[in-house]
Structure formats: structure tokens, C-alpha cells
């Protein structure tokens, strides 16, 4: 199972705890994780990436194994520790504003 | 017993304030959607338990919420959790937060451009919903005025939204430009006597009207004069802040423009100034008494550069003659050291007798006058900055 940690406002929107678990077939990438996340929690569609272009919303970042994957192409494989569930993929709201 | 429910949108959540018909003691529930900007909430006249809310965030984008129990519980009216987000044939199901400009070959327009701050042309980019206007007759039909300026409609209770693209694409769009708050469609008025007629207003483009249910639109800005734009009497480009109408006289409109308070007696075909003896005719809100269509309210703000009341005195001004002659209403309002603003959707009136008038401030106060403006009392004083106030009069 893939583990994903959501920012607080999206936990409230999806009515979940800090971490959600997803089942993914095939290669684990940003795109496959977000596809699975949005399928399981449809209310999150449009909140992490654009509805149509699927581009990451500018004030969100994707961290995996202490590395920033936000600017990686969406089909780049994520680290093995993410794919095995040993480490969670962190979706972070950029720290700005109030 | 009759009562009122006040729907308050703030920078950090929504609040629901309730009272009986006396409007003296209030219950406060909230914050709902804590931490999110709630630009607007509005109840369906056809089903008062149904309330729509625009929940937005610079981080997470736009969400539409709906309550079917008068604001106690809320859901996003899209695909339920656990269900596939696509239907047969892979077609996407409803997404309450999906606002995509209509560029389809059948009904849409190309994704046009508008004037940007730097004078160049800029493509439309969806940012947020400023105003929600439920149908007076059908609880499943609701309109959304959005930034960048466009009008959307849902006919399934907020699950699917479709742009009425004839507005954005009717031809004057390249001359529209954002005001300081963005290029927002902030006013939607549905004519109660003619379901095909809708008025909308945009900062900074002006007012527009459709007479065929939203297919075609025309600017209705004749008589507006804006000396701070290159062509002061231009067909479009005016920074209209808000428009109000009394439901018994849908051809009579009142407008608070950037500067100037205006009136039209012919459905917007022409406007005349009614600022009269106001201390300043800059402001954002304007509203009409529920039972007297010639009684109107504004809150004068010092200037475009100083968004607070003149002399630090928070005064509502009332005209009982449809404009030009105004009286200051001050009883119960702070008359010194007050430097709040009252934003364009933050005033509303109930339909009780006497008519209740309400407004919210950027300082977090929501004021109530249960006697048509003669006296005022703060209901709450320490909310986040208030973006919008709407009232429901409950039987």
C-alpha cells in the first residue's frame, strides 16, 4: 500500500486522518498516486492539481524520502521506499501567507 | 414564529447567525470550513434549507459546498467517496469544484483574452467563485459569478457547472480588465418577473444584461462616467462595485460604482447619478429596503485610496426618495476611530416587518438594524474580515 500524508485542509475536505493508504497497480509515480487518490477521494479533484491540465497547483509541493519531487515530470518513478509503503509521500502546502 | 438566518462569509471560514423575529438574541455557529476563504453563501428561495457556499483557497483552489439542512451539515455535491469518478464510457461524473471555461465547438467560445494590468492581452484563468445566486423557483438551479469574469450555471444542485459563454465571448471581452481585487463577476440578479432576464456586473468591465436566458448579452453602461479610465464614457471598462434591485420593480436598478451612486429606471439601458448629498460617493455595498422600493442604503467609503469611512465614523446612509437626498444613520455605530471597510456583498435586508438591515465589516463586526436602519447593534464583533452577508427570512 502507498501511504500519502495530506495537508490539514485537505484532510478536513476528504474527512480523513493524517495519512491515507492507496492501492496502486504498476509503477508508482506522482501521476499514479494522484490518480488513485482522486479516485478514492473525489472531493480532492482540482485541489492538488488542475482539473484539466493536471498541473500541480503552484502552492503545493510533493516530498518523498526527504527529497522535493515537485518539479519532476509526473511519470518519474517515486523512490522504492514510497512504492513499498516504508515511507509516505508528503503533500505539503507551501508556507506563505496566514 | 418567524426568524432569520444570517449567512456570513469571512476570510477564515463561514458563520451562521440565527435569531427569532425580534432579532435581539443571536445564536452563532461556526467557523464552518475553518481556515478557508468563504467568499459567499446564499440560500435557495425555493428551499430555504438548501444553502450553497463558495469555499476557496490560494493553495487548494475552489470548492462548492451545499447544505440541505439549513447549514447544520455540508457536503460537496459531486461524486460521492468510494464511487468511480467516471461513468459508462469513461465520461467524468459531476465535480462540484470544476469550473472550466466552455470552449466546446457546439456552445462555447474560444478561450478569449482580456486586458491585463500591464496593458497586454491575457487569457482567461479561473480563480474562484465570488457570488452564488440560487434560482428563485428551482432548488437545483444555481448561478456562480467567477473570477476571471464569467457566469456559470448548475442545474443539478451544484454537481456540474457549465459556463454561459455568450457573456465572455460576446465581443467586448478584450476591453475588460481586472480591478484591484481581480477581474471578478460579483453581482448576479435574476429578474423575478422574467426568467430570461439576468443582470450581472464585473469589475472592471461594467454591467451586462441578457434577455434570452444567458445566450446573448449586451453591456448596459450608458450614463456611467469614469474619469479615471482612458475613455470616461466607454461602453465597457467601468468598475461597478455592486448592483441592487427590488423584486417588485425589476426594471429599476441601483448601482454603487467605484465612485458614484447610480440609478436606472429602464433595466440598465441608461443610468443617472443619485449621489446627491453623500459625504463621498465611493463605496462598495448598496441595497434596497424589502418593503419600500424607493428606500436604499449605502455605506460611503472615503476614497479608492483610503478604504475606510470618512472621518473614522461608520455611517450607513439611507435615501427614502430613491437617491439624491440621503440621511446618515449612526445610532449604535462607532462614530470615532473606525477604519473598517464594508465589502460589496456584505449588506443584506430581511423581509420582516420592520425590515431588518445587516452588514459586515473587514474588522469582523456584523451589525443588525431591526428597524430599517434607525438603530444598530453588533451581533458579533470579532470574526475574521467579513466578505459577505446574506439573510434568509424564515417562516
* CATH class category label of chain A: Alpha Beta
Query: What general form of chain B does the structure show?
Result: globular
Count the beta strands of chain A.
5
The figure for the number of domains of chain B is: 1
Helix run count of chain A: 3
The strand order across the widest sheet of chain B is 3-2-1-29
Structural class of chain A: alpha+beta
CATH architecture of chain B: 7 Propeller
Q: Tell me the helix content of chain B.
A: under 10%
Radius of gyration over C-alpha positions of chain A, nearest whole angstrom: 12 Å
**Percent of sequence in beta strands of chain A:** 15-25%
- When the domains of chain A are counted, the total is 1
Which blocks of ≥5 consecutive residues of chain A have pLDDT under 50?
none
Whole-number average pLDDT of chain A?
Answer: 93
Secondary structural class of chain B: mainly beta
Q: Classify the helix fraction of chain A into a percent range.
A: 10-25%
Amino acid at each position: 500500500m502507498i501511504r500519502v500524508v495530506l495537508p490539514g485542509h485537505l484532510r478536513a475536505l476528504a474527512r480523513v486522518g493524517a495519512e491515507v493508504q492507496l492501492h496502486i497497480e504498476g509503477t508508482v509515480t506522482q501521476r499514479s498516486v494522484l490518480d488513485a487518490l482522486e479516485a478514492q477521494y473525489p472531493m480532492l479533484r482540482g485541489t492538488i492539481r488542475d482539473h484539466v491540465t493536471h498541473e500541480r497547483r503552484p502552492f503545493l509541493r510533493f516530498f518523498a524520502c526527504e527529497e522535493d519531487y515537485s518539479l519532476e515530470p509526473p511519470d518519474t518513478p517515486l523512490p522504492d521506499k514510497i512504492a513499498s509503503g516504508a515511507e509516505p509521500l508528503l503533500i505539503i502546502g507551501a508556507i506563505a501567507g496566514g | 414564529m418567524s426568524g432569520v438566518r444570517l449567512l456570513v462569509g469571512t476570510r477564515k471560514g463561514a458563520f451562521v447567525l440565527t435569531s427569532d423575529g425580534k432579532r435581539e438574541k443571536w445564536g452563532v455557529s461556526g467557523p464552518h470550513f475553518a481556515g478557508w476563504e468563504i467568499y459567499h453563501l446564499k440560500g435557495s428561495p425555493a428551499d430555504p434549507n438548501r444553502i450553497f457556499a463558495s469555499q476557496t483557497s490560494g493553495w487548494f483552489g475552489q470548492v462548492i459546498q451545499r447544505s440541505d439542512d439549513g447549514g447544520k451539515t455540508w457536503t460537496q455535491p459531486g461524486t460521492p467517496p468510494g464511487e468511480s469518478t467516471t461513468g459508462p464510457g469513461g465520461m467524468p461524473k459531476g465535480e462540484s469544484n470544476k469550473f472550466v471555461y466552455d470552449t466546446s465547438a457546439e456552445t462555447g467560445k474560444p478561450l478569449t483574452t482580456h486586458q491585463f494590468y500591464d496593458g497586454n492581452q491575457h487569457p482567461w484563468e479561473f480563480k474562484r467563485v465570488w457570488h452564488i445566486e440560487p434560482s428563485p423557483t428551482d432548488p437545483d438551479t444555481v448561478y456562480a459569478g467567477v473570477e476571471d469574469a464569467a457566469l456559470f450555471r448548475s442545474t443539478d444542485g451544484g454537481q456540474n457547472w457549465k459556463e454561459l459563454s455568450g457573456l465572455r465571448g460576446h465581443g467586448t471581452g478584450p476591453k475588460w480588465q481586472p480591478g484591484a481585487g481581480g477581474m471578478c463577476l460579483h453581482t448576479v440578479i435574476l429578474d423575478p418577473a422574467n426568467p430570461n432576464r439576468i443582470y450581472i456586473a464585473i469589475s472592471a468591465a461594467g454591467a451586462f444584461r441578457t434577455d434570452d436566458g444567458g445566450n446573448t448579452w449586451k453591456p448596459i453602461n450608458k450614463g456611467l462616467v469614469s474619469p479615471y479610465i482612458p475613455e470616461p464614457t466607454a461602453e465597457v471598462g467601468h468598475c461597478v462595485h455592486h448592483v441592487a434591485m427590488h423584486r417588485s420593480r425589476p426594471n429599476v436598478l441601483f448601482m454603487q460604482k467605484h465612485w458614484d451612486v447610480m440609478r436606472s429606471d429602464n433595466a440598465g439601458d441608461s443610468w443617472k447619478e443619485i449621489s446627491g448629498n453623500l459625504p463621498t460617493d465611493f463605496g462598495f455595498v448598496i441595497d434596497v429596503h424589502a418593503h419600500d422600493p424607493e428606500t436604499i442604503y449605502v455605506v460611503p467609503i472615503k476614497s479608492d485610496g483610503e478604504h475606510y469611512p470618512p472621518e473614522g465614523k461608520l455611517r450607513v446612509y439611507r435615501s427614502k426618495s430613491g437617491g439624491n437626498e440621503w440621511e446618515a444613520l449612526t445610532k449604535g455605530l462607532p462614530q470615532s476611530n473606525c477604519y473598517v471597510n464594508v465589502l460589496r456583498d456584505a449588506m443584506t435586508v430581511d423581509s420582516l416587518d420592520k425590515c431588518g438591515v445587516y452588514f459586515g465589516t473587514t474588522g469582523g463586526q456584523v451589525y443588525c438594524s431591526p428597524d430599517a436602519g434607525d438603530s444598530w447593534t453588533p451581533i458579533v464583533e470579532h470574526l475574521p474580515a467579513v466578505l459577505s452577508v446574506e439573510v434568509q427570512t424564515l417562516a
